[in-house]
User: Fold this.
Amino acid sequence: MKLLRKKRGLTQDNIAELLGIETNYYATVENGHRNLALPKLIVLCKHYGITLNDLIDLSPQQNDDTQKDIWIQEICVILRKMSVDDIGKIKIALTSLTE
Assistant:
C-alpha cells in the first residue's frame, strides 16, 4: 500500500481522509500492524484503479521489490540533501560492497 501511495505522490493523511479514518490508524495499516475492513479496501482499490486481488495477492518477490523501491526513494531523498563530497564517499563505499 505504501508504494501505491508514494508512486502517486500521496500522503498518509490523503489516504486516511479518503477512507474516513485517522492518519495514525492508516500508518499502522501500512506497517502491517492493523487491517482495513473490506469496504475500506474496496474504496482504496477504486481510488488506485486496481482490483482487490491486485492489492492483497502480492508474492514474496513482489513484496521484496516493493520494499526495494521504497528504500530507493527514501535514499534518494537523503542523498539530495547531502554534499557532492559526501555522496562521492558513499559511492565508493557502495562500490566496495558490490565487488
